[in-house]
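#lab-general

N.A. 3:47 PM
ok so I finally got the sequence cleaned up, no stray characters, all 329 residues accounted for. can someone with queue access submit it? mine expired

B.Y. 3:52 PM
send it over

N.A. 3:53 PM
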Amino acid sequence: MDGSILVVGGNDFQATILDRLPTLPACDVDVASSPKEAQHLIQAQQPDVLILQASLVGNLELCRQIKQQTSLAWIYCILIADQPQNQSEEIVPGWNWELAYRTAALEGGADAFLLLSLQKSEDVLSLTGWKLENHLLQAQIRAGIGRVQIYRSMMRTNDLLSAIALSDPLTELSNRRALDWELPRQIQNARHRTTPLSLLILDIDYFKSVNDTYGHLVGDRLLKLLSARLRHNLRFQDTPFRYGGEEFVIILSNTTLEEGQAVAHRLNSLIGKQPFAIDANLALPVTVSIGVATLQPTDDANGISLINRADQNLLKAKTSGRNQVVAGD
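B.Y. 4:20 PM
back already:
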């Protein structure tokens, strides 16, 4: 079972815990002597299982902090207290120290609480008891690693599903749902950094006639080829989306209206000058109309008004004869 473990405790605690772990296969084990040292390792390595010495000051708070962070709450935390040799001994009359530890562990968000004889095997009078405790510890670690692996697998599946949900299957560009998420984020960044932001809406001229004349398979092929040409001719900071049908939106980060207009003219030229080779026998000449707008202080945070202005400029480009760029606010 592949997994990673971080042991946080004093030297004796580390030594006795490591003495119990050799039979765990394929597990990477690291140690930390204090919660502060552990915090750096947790952020850098994100171990599957965290084994914490219950009596070490700050460990319970470390567990609580981890469980309060969404990005780390999945780490499996095991709090371990030393099993006293005389289990009937009361440090304070009427005070059940085991119950107190278990309660504190539960309130701190620990996934498991164990009582172990924190001694090496050769120092323990009852080897049978030591083996039983060791078996319990290793079973708990395996259960924790198994749960974390299920979580990681679910996250990979969710990431894949999210990518599918935000991608247009035909053109492989981001889709309108992705635009609805990305545009507000870029608007927020632009306003925070006081940088310009522009947006293009691009529409294929007379696309309906392509479908009517050659069929939808040819139309789909044209959309794929045009999308590829867009991707290969945009700058690193430009983000294209399939807006719907034969319309595309391109977010131009850190771009003024004049710069956005220049980008639009370049794309208009690149698309219109070279026909699209549908197959060996068919190459279609295509032109596009483009509307350009830039972010204004009065625009809403979701970008609806920004898109509307770009769309109005696109409409002007289409009603003025198509195959042209219209920019302005």
